[in-house]
User: Fold this.
Amino acid sequence: MKRKMIQVLSLLLFTGVLVGVLVVELWSLDSLEKFKLWPKKSEMLKILGMARASDKEDSTVSYYDAMVLAGDARPLIIKQYLEKYKSPLLPYADLIFELSQSYSFDYRWIVAIAQQESNLCKKIPKGSYNCWGYGIHANGTLKFDNYELALRSFAEYLKREYFDKGYNTPELIMKKYCPHSNGSWAFGIRQFFEEMETSQI
Assistant:
């Protein structure tokens, strides 16, 4: 009986400590935002090495936004890369990242192949929305009604026909995707990968 009482008291004490910590944490976060002690958006981006001239000095980053930025900059990297090259895919930057996560492949593949094949969709068959040069042959051209459908189709195609079959490097993919290349295709893909990875945007 005495042992059970000690266990109950210990549990109550532990619960009380947790509640106390939570209250203090919530008060701290509220105070940081209330008194503007949290870094401005431009300052946070500078800390993360992703500052842009277009960021407004007076905009602030919430605690949760900052954690997203600090924890995973990949969606922002995609946006900045597409913005730099004025790609019509810019409005679909978030979708590109989501598709790469859904199909479990590197977030840079869709963008890098589009850069290699069509200068990020600026040189494609008219009305095709096909930025990746796939399904284009002597018998016709694979066309889509919009970029979203094209992106979803291409992401699934990459997963099914390449990654699931062990083609997982630029060199291996080139052998099937662009077999007549002298190596420049794979070289270009690696170059675009590096540009995004090092944020040279």
Notes: The chain has three domains: 1-37, 38-71, 74-197.
